[in-house]
User: Fold these one by one.
Assistant:
Number 1:
Amino acid sequence: MTISDVQTKLDAVIVHLKAELAQIRTGRASASLVSDIEVDAYDSKLMVKELGQITTPEPNVILISPWDKSILTNIVGGITKANVGLNAVVDGDIIRIVIPPLTSERREQFIKQMHGILEKFRVEVRQIRHQYLESVKTDRQSGRISEDDEEREKHEIQKLHDEYIEAIEVAGKIKEEQLREV
């Protein structure tokens, strides 16, 4: 395992974190709130984003325009079944979802959920660091690298670890600000 392999893994962790944080509701309309919801259509499970166009014409409204109008009720059923706290309504040939304002209690629940997600990703970053340190230790014991190289690698991985933990913290602060926004 090389330091560039580690960096690639850490980049993937940050991408995954941002995707998970995007699915936490902030009181603002966002296509990511519904895009990955599974819907039973055409005898299989498809995501909303595969079945139509998702737009946010207003800060608190999501519109879904299915490409096939015959599956309007399937999409509404999928959103209801997903139990994400959104009420989808058929409005002609489109589905309209009005995002209700968050209560302070609900905001706190989302912030608590977000902190759990952040911790999960911090642990993942630590595990990647640990795996790399074990790899370096094995290389040192087998004589593939010198003691100086081992120390340099340890220092490099710690620097990377600190950078990515900071990136997680920044993403969390931004999301918390969005959640506290009224």
Number 2:
Amino acid sequence: MIAYRCILVLKFLSVMGYAGGAAGAFLCDDPAARRRAVHRIASPSLLATWLSGYALLVLNGWPLFELWVAGALLLSLVGNAALVYCVSRERRSLSAFLGSALPVACVVVLMVVKPTWAQVRP
């Protein structure tokens, strides 16, 4: 039980790191600082989030390709790709921010609701 809680804390810290890197990508004025925020903070934090999430899956016995897990992996990858695109093209508009933040918000919804394939298939 203590391992589960430690991994859960690690995942939470990783998610906060991703959020901080994403915020830095849009709030920093210096383009080099924006790139650092994405490549040195947000992207490694996303990897740590994935790894800790996988550890939680294994500990709980959940399948890796359940709808909520596969959807979260795909959407978090889309959100990170949008962040990388925004800093490489110097985009800082509201639509660019929403393009990178909305997939991550959908990940949170998937993690809370946890829809399964059995629920969506007739």
Number 3:
Amino acid sequence: MTNDLPIGVFDSGVGGLTVAKEIMLRLPKESLLYFGDTARVPYGNKSEETVIAYSRQIARFLCSHSVKAIVIACNTASAFALDTLSAELPVPVIGVVKPGAKAAAAITKTGNIGVIATSGTIRSGLYGRYLRSISPDVHVFGQACPLFVPLVEEGLQNDPVTRTMAERYLTPLLSKGVDTLVLGCTHYPLLTEVIGEVAGPDVTLVNPAYETAKELASMLAGRGLLKTSDTPSAHRFFVSDGEEQFRRFANSILPCELEEADVNRKVFS
């Protein structure tokens, strides 16, 4: 049955596991097929053409495993490749940018919204364009935070250097009076504590991973694709390199134990 097929999820590496986690919690019956492009991470400093090419390769791999939908669990790939994949693929595709932007537009009281993300996502301007299409009067202030991803992947979430960088990155946004801050990279929810402390109690953090899981559930329900059988969920994880490091990181995030991740480099062909 189509309803029993897995949901494809992909990211440039491990950050998309925050999206996978939220999907597992919201849709516990569903099975996931996750691909982390750990050999080519990060995407945030790559060109739009390169990110689209990588995204096409991974989407083709996921579709070869008969997924019923694809979630682009990477803000940079969502910014650059969502429209392309949506037009080319036979299954519905959602990204993480629009759900996060919708939530931010609904939450802000002052209209001043900050977006922290990779250089590629900030450079694309997609958050700003989409937010202004929802609410033309909002003011959107973007800040690239290129060191957050390597700090997370090195397990330095609680290190003093991470707080120092958070202060450096957030100070320009706070000076603009933002009351809402979009965590515009899937790694950043893992820094919620330090970002929240630096931003202060008057700034509401928006986690696009959580919002994406909500939108995915709504989309599947609207298309009659929610799993209805009682067969247990079965998740599979693929990476393009570094299986052991990925597995350790996954087991610190996911609500289930990951015993192994398959290394698959055929996606490059």
